Structures are given as structure tokens and as C-alpha cells.
């Protein structure tokens, strides 16, 4: 009986730690998206990219296919958004954020660019995040 009681206490404690960690991790991820939004709206794609995994294994999936690697993803952004008029003003709406396992987060959202000169555009995105070396980074971005 005492063993079951102790097991219950340990499980309750671990559940509390997991919830606390996920809440903190959620704030970090949402904070990164807020910073990326600000960086984008300031016209700073280089700073915007700091939310991504700096690796050749980074995956970006867009309407033109799959791009692998941090540098190629960065170059793709520069090519698609060569000036402030095409960049417009970014707004993210978060539809779903979950933590399917430790150090992994899955986010679904909507994006919208307000572009008075080039015409507004928008769509949906999914981001797969991993906590690597103590830092949350986007390891896969599917934007349509």
C-alpha cells in the first residue's frame, strides 16, 4: 500500500514538472515567433532566420518544393522577398501548439502579409521544433 502511495506521489510530481516545463517551453517558442515577426516587419530577414536550426538538415517545404539547409532557406527568402514592398507586414496566428514528446514541439498557424503595393498574401504553416543544446529551433517549416 505504501509503495502505491509513493508511486502516486512520484507520478504527480513528474506530471507537475512536465506541465511546468511545457508552459515555459511554450513561452519560449511563442516569444521566438514574436521576435521573428518584429524582425520581418523591420525588413531584417537575417535576424528572422535566427529561429531556424543552423544546419544543412533544416527542411523548408513551400509551393516550389523542398529546400534543405539553413543557407539555402535564407537565400530562398531573400529571393522571394527582395525588398520591403514584397515583404510587407507579417502577422502570425497560432492555431495549435503541442509537445508530442520531450524536446519536440509541433505548431500549426496562419500567416498573412499585408502588402499595399504588391497585394496581400497569406496561408497556413506547420513548424516542427526541437530543443537542441538547450535552445528551441525550427527544424522543419512547411508553409503554403
UniProtKB/TrEMBL annotation:
Any idea which UniProt keywords this protein has?
Isomerase, Signal
**Domain DUF4440: from-to ranges:** 35-138
Q: Specify the signal sequence span.
A: 1-23
State one Pfam family annotation: DUF4440
Keyword Ligase attributed: no
Gene3D superfamilies (alphabetical): 3.10.450.50
- GO molecular function terms noted in the UniProt entry: isomerase activity
Can you say what this protein is called?
A: Ketosteroid isomerase-like protein
Species this protein is from: Rhabdobacter roseus
